[in-house]
Predict the structure.
Amino acid sequence: MNEQLLRDLLLYLNNLGISSRTELLPSLLKAQKLFGYIPEEAIEIISEKLGVSQVEIYGVISFYSLLYVKPTADTVIRICTSPLCSQKGSHKIQKALQEKLGIKEGIPSTDGLFMVESVHCLGLCAHSPSALVNEIPICHISENKLDDLIEGKGSKPLARAFSDNPVLTSRFGTIEADSINDFIREDGFKGFIHALTLDQETIISNVKASGLLGRGGAAFPTGLKEESTAKDEAKEVYVICNADESEPGTFKDRVMLLNDPYSVLEGMLITAYAIGSHKGFIYIRGEYDQAQELFAKVLKNAEEKGYLGENILNSGFSFHVEIRSGAGAYICGEETALFESIEGKRGYPRNKPPYPVDSGVFGKPTDINNVETFSYISRIFGEKRDNSSTRLFCLSGDVKRAGLYELPFGIPLIELINDWGGGTKEDRKIKTIILGGASGSFVPEKYWDIPLDQKSLREAGLSMGSGVIMVFDETKEIPSILNDISSFFNHESCGKCYPCQLGSRKQHEIISRIHKSGPLPDDRDKLLDIGFTMKDASLCGLGQTASSAVLSAINLWPELFTAKGGPLQ
Amino acid sequence: MIGLFIDDIEVECDEEMTIMKAAESVGIEIPTICYHEKLTPPGLCRQCVVEVEGARVLLPSCVTKVREGMKVKTNSPRVQRVRKTILEMLAGSTDLSNAQGLQEQMKESGADSKRFDNSEKRVFPIKDDNPFYIRDYSKCIVCERCVQVCSEDIQFSYALTTSGRGYENRISTYYDKELPQTSCVFCGNCIDVCPTGALIARKESL
Ligand SMILES: Cc1cc2nc3c(=O)[nH]c(=O)nc-3n(C[C@H](O)[C@H](O)[C@H](O)COP(=O)(O)O)c2cc1C
Ligand code: SF4
Ligand code: FES
């Protein structure tokens, strides 16, 4: 055991403001970084300092994919195997890489230099196939460039957006993302300063009047949530920005955080002021190292300029924000699982009610919103007030220009794909489109020109979730795409509730068998029973949507699931 | 007091009551797996779900409180399909041979215990590492009751946790150590609450 590293950990723990369970995940991430895993000695120290039992810490570590109880390696290469990267051959690349390094998945090389793992969606879907080499994102990886990959070299993700009337993305490319002066020059904080002149009810009624619906997936009215949190007489109220972004096909929050992070902070400030909160968190997924670093600078700069901290701009209003890193668990994007994670626990969602507005993090009323939602709030009060209702779309898959688009609601789906995305590569036929990510569903061909607004989508039984559009051309096979999706849920189910814990596994077993060797006579009925059970009885949104794609596929292509159709490739 | 309808029966009860308790008060029994009188209900097995008019999904009756005018169906086709499928998937994952309660529920709901037989079961070697208990986790359904009693719900011994994630969730000690090397005090609470025979006292096993 390296005594120096243990002393470093001890120093870190001694310097913590509060020594309580909420510091558990940050402490474990610190230990993981220091040692490359979390040795027993580290657990013992952390247990003693934070007053959490050793066995619970062990349970927490084993829940999160980025925490290990066994040594990893100097260089850990994580290959994305979610639908988009998988369909572009990431599995084959991973295999080739492992062969080249002479190692098996998840097992470090004997010299401790390398380890290779598959991961689910790194938010680099516009540049697939992609990988993470330690914390460095590498795009467009290929079998021909394995040496580069091993050294952490290769193309970096582009962080820009396409739009002809940018509102949310108006500052992209015109400012240095970390420069508070640039942000202020481009009308930054004007919305917040304006909000400071209004009373709380007026702010909330403005948000309500804007018609803003949450952009994290559930499309809940943002103003209503503010109102319910503010109504509470409680002293302690929290504001949380959900930047856990892990839904396959979603990358908008990463791009927003890397281009205009101050706007997100501004939205949090306005919200905090409106609901009387003095403490906020931004929970950024563990794989977004760059966004975490940048946001730390943002907070520091804002504090120095008096936009954050005590008595902000001499208004008497105080607000503090803490960054929390995820540790590799899609479920922690679910709001109540995120609270548990901040509280230092396994990321198990809670039964609702109580709802976050009544009892959120630490049991206190909490207003949690998505990155894009907060950025949008900052525009509602800005000078160039704009209710033009654009939203961010993440376009990926077999299109010429995959990437982030800011477009008005109601744009027809096919127009977005063809006119903005440039259509399919080599002008192949579109095989299918998925809206909403892995938890979304296949769009029937008759709806390919559907206007992308809440109402039309709802009527068609579709949902765009976090704005994900995945396009697959005629060279792709449905069973293979489904296999990637069911594999995702099999890996990411938290396992708390039976329908999802058992259903996500059984569903994946059946789908992967259908993919390999074709369906058995009762597969369809089993998938329907599993699917409806997950949808109807799961505890949280993960399980409730984990069968969406499968159920929609059974509906659209029943022949793929009936035995007489014969084996499929 | 508030009023609601459960399976078309008019029920009057305290507004703090759960649907399950309200149903019980008029003689309707709702099946449960994870629920235990003495413990904080985790609401994880979802066997107790009921159909509430106007709700998008089925609701767990063990933790959902009654509301004025609520219309509840405790045994609708939707509910039956879910209960049966959960039991079938459970039987296709775990050895339920000693879980009497579950066997009865399977019979009751018409569940086919072999339906998911060609699915990968969770099988582990028996843990026989102390003079008092035998732990056979092939029979464990991860209801987490033992973790609850070992932690805040009763004993504060903190010998057990759930480790892993998803289908890989397991009841485990610290680093999976043998019980005598952990903070276990052999109070026996976990044995009392285990519904499946995964945890048994040594004398019973003979
Ligand atoms: C499995 C799961 C994962 C989720 N992941 C995210 C996420 O990464 N980011 C996010 O903003 N919301 C996510 N959500 C939705 C949140 O629970 C919550 O609704 C959202 O943060 C509220 O913000 P909004 O009102 O601005 O959309 C997720 C939900 C589920 C069920
Ligand atoms: S639905 Fe899935 S992710 Fe959600 S609580 Fe249940 S097991 Fe966990
Ligand atoms: S008894 Fe298990 S969820 Fe209600």
